[in-house]
Each structure stands twice: as structure tokens, then as C-alpha cells.
Q: What sequence folds into this?
């Protein structure tokens, strides 16, 4: 198959490219960075260098593809983050139509069943709706759980304050996923013959936040590492203090509040998938190696 993927050689798109090339597909990888072209070629794929904000570039990169993988990368410079995410979704929809693509696997998020109140996931909800409006295009939304790698954002907190935490408590049930398990699921869907519009949840493990603290703490030689719950205002102030723009910090706090109340996970709990292979204990070893 001829497959175009967004997301450059990012956390999901790099292992995805490797799987698809190995399976014998012709893979085109979109990156905004010309310096990445050589690395993309070295993996056996074709670089398409340009911006996902540019619909005519996207259209040319999608042209001739039997299937496309769409994802919206983080953009900490966005003035209105939810709208920016939806705008990229609209760019994808316009390019899919202009290029005549009929099969799309779209990276979405756990919590994307909700219309609002979930921070950046509200943007994922809007992207799902935009792609669902495309006539004659099969779309599979992969609603990924909370990435394990998000915990790298807590490294400074662990090193300098000796704690890990967020605006939800240690007894909060979390649904976690490894990017490699997502890449595996995306590859499966790109190569399968689904029709219509549908959703698949992708998760690797289910643990409480306190269990996350214990597993990561044990792996880095701090077995007593406590999970600390902050109130929303302190959570936002802490994120701003750590260097995030207010818009992004506020959105993350909104997402954390949705985790605290449980609304983030409620639809997942009634549509549970078979869990992926990479468990919290496996990720804890990776975390310790990078700590
Ligand atoms: N974090 C979570 O818990 C979670 C949960 C569910 C879903 N998600 C979704 O997963 C996404 C992250 O996926 P990921 O970790 O695979 O992505 P990633 O590795 O953070 O980023 C993918 C790549 O996209 C490229 N990119 C950025 N801006 C671009 C632009 N303007 N034009 C073209 N390419 C651009 C960048 O590569 P180049 O520099 O080479 O262009 C970047 O490395 C989130 O944004 C969210 O939508 C996240």
C-alpha cells in the first residue's frame, strides 16, 4: 500500500514508519524539518517536508495515498489551543477531500467523547467531528489513553521537590499507554479493511496515580516518592512557573480536573479494548534509564 503519515519521526510515527516499511508498504512521512529528510530516508520511507498548516502542501503529500494517518502535534505557541487543534483537523479534512483519500486512521484521545471541559482533548473531539463529516471516507479514530511519556514532564519536580503529582489524587484510576503500543494499533488499522466511521480505544495498563508514583519511584531508587494532589490554581501556577504559557497550563489543569472527576475515562470503561503489551513496570525501566 501507499501510506502517508503525519507526525514526522515523533513518538508514534517513528515506530509506525518502521512497522509499515518492514511490512513492505511505500511510506511517505510528513515533517516540518528539512534536516529530518535523511533520517526518514534511512528508515526506508519518503520524506515530505512542509507544514501541516499548509493545505496545498498536505494535499500533495496525501495525493495517491491508499491510506493516511493523521495526528495533531502539541503546539505550546497556540493562542487558543483547542481551536488550533480543530483548525489542523480542518486542514486534514480539506486535504483528504482535495487529494481523494478514502481511508484515514486518526489519532484521537481518551475523553474525546466529551464536547468540552477536557483541555486539549476538546480539540481532539472537534477533529473527530470534522473528519466524521467527510462523505465517502472511512475513518477510524484511535482514542489513545494517557501517554506514559507525559511523566517525563515531572522529572524536575521529582529531582527538585522530591514529589510527583498533579491536580488529581493518588487514588485516581488512570488509563495509560505506551507510544509503541499505539504505533502497533495504528499499523493494524491502516492495513485492515474497515468502513464507515468508528472509534477504537488504545491502552496498555490501568493503574492509580499512587501506583504510578510507587513504580517510577522504585525504578529510580526513590521508593517512597509520594503522589501529591495540587488544587487547580496551584497546578496552573506550577506549570506556568515551569515555563508553560498560561493558555497551555490552563488547558492541562482542565484535563487534570476531568481525570479527577473520572469523566475522562467514563466512555473507555464501557468500551474497554484488549490492553497492549507494555506495562507500567516496563515503562518504569525506560523512565529510570532517561531520568
Ligand atoms: N500525551 C497524551 O497523553 C496524549 C493522549 C492521547 C492523544 N495524544 C495525541 O498525541 C499527540 C502526540 O503524538 P506524538 O507524541 O507521536 O507526537 P510528537 O512526537 O510530540 O510530535 C510529532 C512530530 O510532529 C511534527 N510537527 C510538529 N509541528 C508540525 C508542523 N507544523 N508541521 C509538520 N509537522 C509538525 C514534529 O516533527 P518535525 O520537527 O520533524 O516536524 C514532531 O516531532 C498529541 O498532540 C495528541 O494529539 C496525546
A:
Amino acid at each position: 500500500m501507499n501510506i502517508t503519515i503525519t507526525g514526522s519521526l515523533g513518538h508514534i510515527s517513528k515506530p509506525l514508519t518502521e512497522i509499515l516499511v518492514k511490512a513492505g508498504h511505500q511510506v511517505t512521512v510528513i515533517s516540518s524539518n528539512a534536516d529530518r529528510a535523511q533520517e526518514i530516508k534511512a528508515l526506508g520511507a519518503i520524506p515530505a517536508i512542509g507544514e501541516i498548516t499548509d493545505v496545498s502542501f498536505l494535499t500533495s503529500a496525501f495525493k495517491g495515498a491508499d491510506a493516511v494517518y493523521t495526528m495533531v502535534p502539541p503546539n505550546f505557541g497556540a493562542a487558543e489551543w483547542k481551536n488550533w487543534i480543530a483548525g489542523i483537523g480542518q486542514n486534514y479534512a480539506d486535504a483528504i477531500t482535495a487529494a481523494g483519500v478514502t481511508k484515514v486512521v486518526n489519532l484521537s484521545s481518551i475523553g474525546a467523547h466529551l464536547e468540552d471541559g477536557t483541555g486539549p482533548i476538546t480539540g481532539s473531539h472537534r477533529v473527530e467531528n470534522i473528519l466524521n463529516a467527510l462523505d465517502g471516507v472511512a475513518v477510524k479514530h484511535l482514542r489513545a489513553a494517557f501517554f506514559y511519556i507525559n511523566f517525563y514532564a515531572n522529572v524536575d519536580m521529582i529531582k527538585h521537590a522530591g514529589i510527583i503529582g498533579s491536580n488529581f489524587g493518588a487514588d485516581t484510576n488512570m488509563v495509560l499507554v505506551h507510544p509503541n503500543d499505539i504505533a502497533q494499533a495504528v499499523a493494524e488499522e491502516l492495513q485492515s479493511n474497515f468502513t464507515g466511521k468508528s472509534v477504537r480505544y488504545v491502552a496498555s495498563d490501568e493503574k492509580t496515580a499512587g501506583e504510578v508514583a510507587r513504580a517510577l519511584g522504585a525504578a529510580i531508587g526513590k521508593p517512597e516518592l509520594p503522589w501529591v494532589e495540587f488544587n487547580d490554581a496551584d497546578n496552573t501556577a506550577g506549570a506556568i512557573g515551569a515555563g508553560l504559557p498560561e493558555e497551555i497550563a490552563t488547558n492541562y489543569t482542565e484535563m487534570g480536573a476531568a481525570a479527577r472527576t473520572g469523566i475522562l475515562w467514563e466512555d473507555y470503561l464501557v468500551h474497554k479494548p484488549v490492553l497492549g503489551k507494555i506495562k507500567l513496570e516496563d515503562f518504569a525501566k525506560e523512565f529510570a534509564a532517561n531520568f
User: Anything to note?
Assistant: The domain at 2-143+179-202 is CATH 3.40.50.720 (Rossmann fold). The first strand starts at residue 2 and ends at 5. Residues 81-99 form the longest helix (19 residues). Residues 7-8, 10-13, 30-33, 36, 51-53, 71-74, 107, 109, 144, 146-147, 150, 179 surround NAP (CB under 6 Å).
